[in-house]
Specification:
five-stranded antiparallel beta sheet, 22 strands, OB fold (Dihydrolipoamide Acetyltransferase, E2P), Aminopeptidase, about 350 residues, 2 domains, about 35% strand, alpha+beta, nine-stranded mixed beta sheet
Length: about 350
């Protein structure tokens, strides 16, 4: 009996070690199995300095590496608050694989309450990928995320919302290209698993893959990593409902990737998939007036607003060139020539 118990104990102990993960090396530090660790990655240019707060969740069992970024735009608060919740809710002891969570990618924009741009160099981080190790501070942030997060990931999610002037209808999106069919397929499966009502296809021509990515999640796709964008939140408002929606979507993704076993199964949503979109741009500078909002359905030829000069004279009446649903739009009065007024999805 003693020999049997000893053998059983030895077998169970060996099995535990066999299934445990090796330590995950990040920033030359070792994160052991079943633990999480916070990092502040310094980013320094000739003129400016900042840091990127990153949390590593290294699961107790082997699995994929999932990279997640929030706060690429520092005024998009629901994703940033969702990242803070994920930091509290992900239990690495129950996790299979590893999660690299960028809590806030663009600290200067966040602390400076700056829509779209990093106030240190007035550059858009989501137009700066893959970045440059010797560029401006924004280019160096992009380079750090590219090399330290995206390049280490098997799957990738970039979380966004409507910035300060943007009214937005919540959706997610995946990248797709005929040149990368398997990567595209996995990205589609990721997006559809997250339970959003609407999912957008970002079609990437093969020749575009040879150019700089510019966008954070597109950099992952260029590196043959299945990648998804989340767009959830509007006008920079820190909405609890939108924050919770992002968190729930991420946990559904963890389940899909077999990284967590979610005991409470949510009702699966079959999303409407939008493959084509079009944009209405301003031809004038002044004040924009509209009764429309994100999520509204519009018909071809329908009036969607007008622009006046600074004395109230109408400069431009705006009509929809096609029918569809407003995905996002300018939600505040200021308008410049060539600004995007609306981005409209064509419903299937």
């Amino acid at each position: 009996m003693i020999k049997t118990r000893t053998f059983l104990f030895t077998f169970l102990l060996a099995s535990t070690f066999a299934t445990a993960q090796k330590p995950f090396i990040f920033q030359n530090k070792s994160v052991t199995s079943g633990n999480k660790h916070h990092f502040k990655i310094p980013v320094i240019s000739k003129k400016d300095s900042t840091f990127i707060p990153v949390t590593i969740f290294h699961g107790s069992k082997p699995g994929p590496v999932l990279g997640i970024t929030a706060g690429i735009h520092g005024y998009e608060y629901p994703p940033i608050l969702a990242a803070q919740q994920l930091n509290q809710k992900i239990n690495p002891k129950q996790l299979s694989g590893t999660i690299i969570l960028v809590q806030i990618a663009n600290i200067p924009a966040f602390l400076g309450r700056s829509p779209f741009l990093n106030p240190l160099d007035n550059k858009n981080l989501n137009r700066s990928f893959p970045g440059a190790p010797t560029g401006s501070i924004t280019e160096r942030i992009a380079h750090t995320i590219t090399t330290q997060v995206i390049a280490k990931s098997d799957f990738f999610v970039d979380m966004h919302a409507g910035d300060a002037p943007e009214d937005l209808r919540s959706y997610n999106a995946w990248y797709q290209s005929k040149a990368l069919p398997e990567v595209s397929k996995k990205g589609r499966e990721m997006a559809l698993a997250m339970g959003f009502d609407y999912s957008i296809i970002f079609n990437i021509p093969e020749e575009r893959l040879k150019e700089p990515s510019l966008y954070c999640s597109q950099e992952a796709f260029h590196r043959k990593i299945p990648s998804v964008d989340i767009e959830c939140g509007s006008l920079g408002i820190p909405s609890k409902a939108k924050t919770d929606r992002i968190v729930n979507g991420m946990f559904s993704l963890f389940e899909h990737l077999q990284m967590l076993d979610i005991s409470t199964k949510s009702t699966k949503t079959k999303p409407t998939i939008i493959a084509k979109r079009f944009t209405i741009k301003s031809k004038s500078t002044g004040l924009f007036y509209t009764t429309k909002k994100a999520g509204d359905l519009i018909k071809k030829g329908e009036s969607v607003g007008y622009i006046t000069d600074f004395f109230g004279n109408i400069l431009e009446n705006i009509e929809a060139p096609q029918s569809g649903m407003i995905l996002y739009m300018i939600g505040t009065p200021p308008i410049n020539k060539n600004d995007t007024i609306m981005n409209i999805g064509i419903l299937p």
